[in-house]
Amino acid sequence: MKTAYTAGATSPQDESHAPGSRTAPLRLAIVDGDSGFLQVVEKRVRARGWQQRVLTGAVPVEELVGMRLGALVIDLAVLGAPGWAYLEQVCAALPALPVIVCTGPSTVAQRVRALRIGADDWLGKPCHPEELVARIEAIVRRGRLAAPPVERPVLEAGEITIRPDQFQAFVGPRSLDLTRREFELIRLLAGNTGQVLEREAIYQRVWGYAMAHGDRSVDVFVRKLRQKLERSSPGWRYIHTHFGVGYRFAPEPVDGPSSSVDALDLDDATASLRERVLQ
Amino acid sequence: MKTAYTAGATSPQDESHAPGSRTAPLRLAIVDGDSGFLQVVEKRVRARGWQQRVLTGAVPVEELVGMRLGALVIDLAVLGAPGWAYLEQVCAALPALPVIVCTGPSTVAQRVRALRIGADDWLGKPCHPEELVARIEAIVRRGRLAAPPVERPVLEAGEITIRPDQFQAFVGPRSLDLTRREFELIRLLAGNTGQVLEREAIYQRVWGYAMAHGDRSVDVFVRKLRQKLERSSPGWRYIHTHFGVGYRFAPEPVDGPSSSVDALDLDDATASLRERVLQ
DNA sequence: GGATGGTGTGAACACCGTGTTATCCGCACA
DNA sequence: TGTGCGGATAACACGGTGTTCACACCATCC
Lengths: 279, 279
Prior knowledge:
The structure is a homodimer.
Chain A: E1 27-31, H1 35-47, E2 51-55, H2 61-67, E3 71-74, H3 76-79, H4 83-93, E4 99-103, H5 108-117, E5 121-124, H6 129-146, E6 155-157, E7 160-163, E8 168-171, E9 174-175, H7 180-191, E10 196-198, H8 199-207, H9 217-232, E11 236-242, E12 246-253, H10 261-278
Parallel strand pairs in A: 1-2, 1-3, 3-4, 4-5
Antiparallel strand pairs in A: 6-7, 7-8, 8-9, 10-12, 11-12
Helix pairs in contact in A: 1-6, 7-8, 7-9
Chain B binds a DNA duplex through helix 7 and helix 9.
């Protein structure tokens, strides 16, 4: 009855565009029997980083709840006569779940009925998968707009705590007193801990536009960050330079002559990582 | 260019997009030229107790804002080539406004484009007015549903009390004498105590539409609020500026003239802030 | 080991963001 | 039609912030 989610290799921490818009991958379930249609839809779903799950029949509502879906597409023809009752049941039990009916020929009365029952949209088959995806996006967008602001995850690294809701980083209760740009920079770096980020990529994602040739802004801001990190959290190194490439964020205690086990582990990890990256 | 609303009694207070929208009669505007279509639609709109307003062209966005609409139906054919730019403009300025494109023959690409721009639905003409109304209902339902339950708890912060039922804030029995906007602003801020809110987000939620670039309204109103807070509750600081970001509401007693060290103040501030935020 | 080019560092400077005040406009009310 | 209020807009001052530059330093390559 159920199939594992396809697609959706969850990237560690990727914000496609604006620094503030974080969207968890949408979980989409489709009740449909047309394998060709499912395939072309999945292609587009995957392209958006969503996850697609195919349901072959009327899955009990309790199971739907457990799936934590972001949207549901139903072909009423697959379910036959009980399809309407099922639609009603689902919409009643999960009013927050966006539901799109995507099925064959229909009458105005049927479409109106589905919409009144609680469906968000009705798209007649045959249809273009791109339109289906666009309609799903529109509905989800409408729902998210009124929803409470998404809670941004707090990042922890070494001694510091990065609070997106405060636009600030802390060491214990003490603020690092970062400016907006500095904060965006450290959030980007810490959000991709262990990865080497190129200057151009950093600039593109923090500043929002392409870096001019010869621009040293990233270097200067890294210096400011290091300075404030050193001041608030001495004994730790966070930002590492990769010559000719860019920077890598990785909290490492500045171990004295006595090396602890943790330090060794970290060193090993970063060493192997460095090898991989630099080749 | 404009026509008076037909049907429906004008409600004294309506908050179409403000965060406290009750089920006030929906204000619907239609950009369309087909009088026959308008008539049959209006019949159904009236039957639901909504208000319908007919627009004969691309009304400036500022006027749309003033109309406090609950939904907008557009026939792109009426507007001609600039219709697309207008659609984009409206959707950008009023993301909370449900927009349905209801127009003649179209291609998949056009429909997808409209939906991506920000339209909520596309319904091809000729269409049944009942379906149009049902689709409007579905979209409005989705928007309302995602919104958190209308809760208006009395907020306490420092010396002040915010009473949503009075649309006013008090210090003991004395009113701060806030205007409507000032009240909405302090309610939003105090409702997110400890969180830094960006200007754009504040504007979006208090004014109901997107903030124009360079608009200083939020700053001016924050100043007015600070002034009234200072007048009624000296010895407390409530609204804190976060340079390059926005504002944060957090009641903090202005400690006496004894301590003049910035570091101490900062430590106290962040410590108390952290406590409150973490709860 | 020298040459070359990338990076760290500090400071000067221009610009942008914010506080503040004043003015204008639209609207409700008398 | 006049008056008062609320809100939008503009203008100015000032301080924080970002950019740019110069120079020192260091890694890499030959």
